[in-house]
Amino acid sequence: MSAEFYQEYIESNRAIIYKICRAYAEDDPEFQDYFQEVCLQLWKARKNFNHESKLSTWIYRVTLNVCLSLVRTKRNKPQKVEIREYHATRVPEDEDLEALRLDMLYKAIRKLKEVDRGIILLYLESKSYQDIADIMGISMSHVGVKVNRIKKQLKNMING
Amino acid sequence: MDNMDIENIWEAGHQSGRNIETVEATAKKYNKKSLQLVERIYRTGRKEHRIFLIVVGVAMPVLLLTKAFIIASSLLIFTGLIIWKYEVEMGILRKIKFQDNTLNYLISVKRLLNRFMLNYKIGIMVGVPLLMLGGMIIAQNILGKAITPMLMDPVFWFIFLFACFLSIGLSRLWLHFWVHTLYGKKFKELQSMIEDLETA
């Protein structure tokens, strides 16, 4: 992986990749795996980026696809039951209320259906309905309906 | 929890003190800095090496003119070793590439520098006693007096061991002073960057 690629593709879009990986990964080691896999796939797919869309949009798409694919692969594998306390990735201590709320939001997002996670992440990242529709491959009107439904679902989960 | 909008939670959470953006900002802040720091270490190493070669260049003719051939040849061997070591060390340092993680990069550099230091420390531990033994053999030839009877005397060994410990201690002190003067600030910076990234 060259330094130029790393700088242009990964560093400048690191926050996007982090947020998506965090929403799909169950714990820290898994998060690391997801992040590495996304970087690897971005590296492999870099020649497919045709500059028709914004780089960040393309990164969203690839990252979401990689995470969805990893989640599906994991689901098809036999699960190991492990007693482990989950410390969310790079999440601050409990005293930080805003970070705690964010942690709860991530946990709630992780309970959503895989595709719904992608939609809400894009929505929270202030992507337009058109962009969300393009990235997720669904119609714009469907995005609106979905977003409202998911937001309601998340609010219920967070506010108990 | 209060009835908060998820948009607000998302926004505020990612702006709060120790969130992923902060981690990212810390990493970003150090990306360039870490590369510059390693470059500075590399440049100092190069300067140090050049100074050493200049000193040898001046010392060698003086030694030859004063017919101190044994010291001159020892210096020549030592210089050869230093040149070889410098090339190897700098080659390894250059091989560490900044890949996908500033922290990993800095830790790799720190490990490598510690390994270099360890090599020097071992070198002193082994080299000093060998040098002293060699010195004795040379002295025996120069004085034309056999040292074999002295080897039977326990006092001789006591003095020899004491001299060894003292020389090792002084050499270690000199190494510490030398490294501290030339690289101390850079090592401190390296350590502080690593700590900062680890706690971010």
Rg estimate of chain A, integer Å: 16 Å
Mean pLDDT of chain A: 78
What structural class should be given to the helix and strand makeup of chain A? mainly alpha
Second rung of CATH, namely the architecture of chain A: Up-down Bundle
**General form of chain B:** elongated
Task: Give start-end ranges of low-pLDDT stretches of chain B.
Answer: none
Rg of chain B, nearest Å: 26 Å
Stretches of chain A where pLDDT is under 50 for at least 5 consecutive residues are 81-95
Mean pLDDT of chain B, nearest integer?
Answer: 81
Q: Characterize the largest beta sheet of chain A: strand count, sense, and whether it forms a barrel.
A: none
Number of strands of chain B: 0
What class, by secondary structure content of chain B? mainly alpha
Q: Give me the number of helical elements of chain B.
A: 6
Measured as a percent range, the helix fraction of chain A is over 70%
State the domain count of chain A. 1
Write down the domain tally of chain B: 1
Strand content of chain B: under 5%
Question: Can you tell me the CATH class of chain A?
Answer: Mainly Alpha
Transmembrane segments (chain B): 51-84, 122-143, 155-175
Keywords (chain B): Membrane, Transmembrane, Transmembrane helix
Pfam families (chain A): Sigma70_r2, Sigma70_r4_2
Organism (chain A): Splendidivirga corallicola
Folded structure, characterized:
Chain A is built from eight helices and no strands. Chain A has helices at residues 3-10, 14-24, 28-45, 55-76, 97-110, 114-124, 129-136, 140-159. In chain A, helix 2 (14-24) packs antiparallel against helix 6. The longest helix of chain A is centred in the middle third of the chain and has 22 residues, at 55-76. Mean pLDDT of chain A is 78; it is low at 81-95. Chain B has one domain. Chain B is built from six helices and no strands. Chain B starts with 5 loop residues before the first helix and ends with a helix. Classes of the chains: A mainly alpha (160), B mainly alpha (200). Chain A binds chain B through residues 1, 3, 6, 10-11, 14-15, 18-19, 22, 36, 39, 89-93, 96, 98-99, 101-105, 120, 124, 151, 154-155, 158-160, and chain B through 1, 3-7, 9-10, 12-21, 23-24, 27-28, 31, 97-100, 200.
